[in-house]
Amino acid sequence: MAADCGVFVDWSQMGDVSHDAAPGKTEYKDLKELKQHARSGQWAKNHSQRSAVYQQLLKALPCRTVTPDAAVYRDIVGNSNSKCNPSAYPLPDFVDGTAVPCYCLKAESVGSVHAVISCIAGQFPDISHCPTLPAVTALLLHWSADEAQCFESVSRMLACNEPGRRLLDQTFLAYQSACMTFGDLVHKYCPAAHKLMVATATDVLEVYSDWQRWVLGDLPFSFAARVMDIYLVEGYKVLYRVALAILKSYRKQRSAAADSALTKQDSAAVRSDIQAFVQNIGKSVTPEKLLEKAFSIRLFSRKEITLLQLANEKSLQQKGITVKQKRQNVQLAVNADNFSSEIVSAKEIRDIWSWIPERFALCQPQLLFTTSTHGCSLNRFYSHCEGYEPTLMLIRTTDGEVCGAFLSTDWEERKRGGNKLSFFGTGECFVFRMKPEMERYEWVVIKHPELANASQAADDEQTGANNNGGLQSLEKPATDPSHLSPFLSARHFNLNSRNTSMFMAGNIDSIIIGGGEGNALYIDSELNHGRTEHCLTFDNPPLCAESFQIALLEVWGFKDAMAS
Length: 564
What we know:
The protein is of the alpha+beta class and 564 residues long. The chain has three domains: 1-166, no CATH class; 171-326, Ypt/Rab-GAP domain of gyp1p, domain 3 (Cyclin A, domain 1, Orthogonal Bundle); 346-448 and 500-560, no CATH class. The chain is 40% helix and 10% strand. It contains 21 helices and twelve strands. The strands form two sheets. Strands 1, 2, 3, 4, 5, 8, 9, 10, 11 and 12 form a ten-stranded antiparallel beta sheet that branches. α10 packs across α12 and α11 (221-234) runs antiparallel to α12 (237-256). The longest helix has 20 residues, at 237-256. The protein is elongated and about 80 Å long. It is a peripheral membrane protein. Keywords: Cytoplasmic vesicle, Membrane, Synapse. Residues 342-559 form the TLDc domain. May act as a GTPase-activating protein for Rab family protein(s). Involved in neuronal projections development, probably through a negative modulation of ARF6 function. Involved in the regulation of synaptic vesicle trafficking.
């Protein structure tokens, strides 16, 4: 391998990477050791070693029965090596105009990338959208003996059929739902960066749609190669991690800049600014530091992210967005011309909409209930809000303070507990205040995942002590919980006061949002008086004056929202 790999590489740009050193360790039986070597950059300085490891990893991928190999490429294209004219092999439409990154390749090697992708297009007719393919192909060409071997490597990534393993998005539906999922992850794990995006970009989702290109395309070669090491071992989730770390680093750089005053600008300008930052990221951080930041983010499990991705795919399918369309069809749906609230402005609702899970942020806001029209009655509140999921509650107090909550679950769920206050909802619920400044408070478990285990242990203990009829401390959801994530699944509680998963509850006397040693919001049956205090579920301060009178309460639904 040492004599073969590297024929496409411009070695004058490769620094201290060894071209002809012995490969060293290339076969791994211990997955833990393989993972540790991938993350620590064990192969970064030895081109032959990395090439041999990659070939082993790619050959080990389970693929569909008929997967084109190097022999197929040689039959179609021949044995051409790095002498192809790119114009002879135009890139297919499914790369969406994405150019081939140089990645320290010889100038003429770009033609080889074109040739490989052109052959891929003929062998994989089902691919309809795959803008990351030029970057992945250019990277794999580095560690290939010839174009045919690169073609086989890419083919195996595309044909991988291991259940639950995802390598390359190949349809617009998969790609767009991944962009939405990334947006959801930014909301939760990079709130400061998300706040910056909302303050500076006219269309936040459009900015987040570049996330894959940041990692596979814009990052310099030394960074991208380290990402590829981990990507081939651990899969798609590492791309989310690195993109989140990039966004965190960008925010840090922006906040440190002298001209860091936040002004709204066209999304294209923000996208260009982030792209320039990523392309020059070596000036502010090393590959090691970027990966350290990426793995310090306490993401939910791969299963959790897969469920979120599937939920986003379902939302897009229900809206008929399965092929690439004009931007306005997939951007946030709040339109100032047809939005009218007595509590918040169109700009403020857009800011709130930017916090909402992406699959719902595509929906138009729909006024379901307002005390100014429907009166101050909890029964009327329920009758207008039942059957809608999720909902957004807005409150203006007689002192002019504004706060509210995003509620993930249909209020009809409260009936499962009879007239007993019984908590339900999911970890997508959050509460917020608008003044003195806009602030959102999410489920505390997002920032402190260890609390989920402690909370579950408390639930189990309460269940054992409380088996005397009525609703159990933890009632199993209708769907087998082993197939649901605690973040997206609705669970019903009658819990002790130290629980961190008390999202929403209601009966004929009151509604409560957020529990655990206090309530984020308590509202009485006449929708007239309320209280707010710190609660464990959202770890929030009081959202307004602790005891308040309600001047106006509105509930908004999400037109054409995904059915539960």
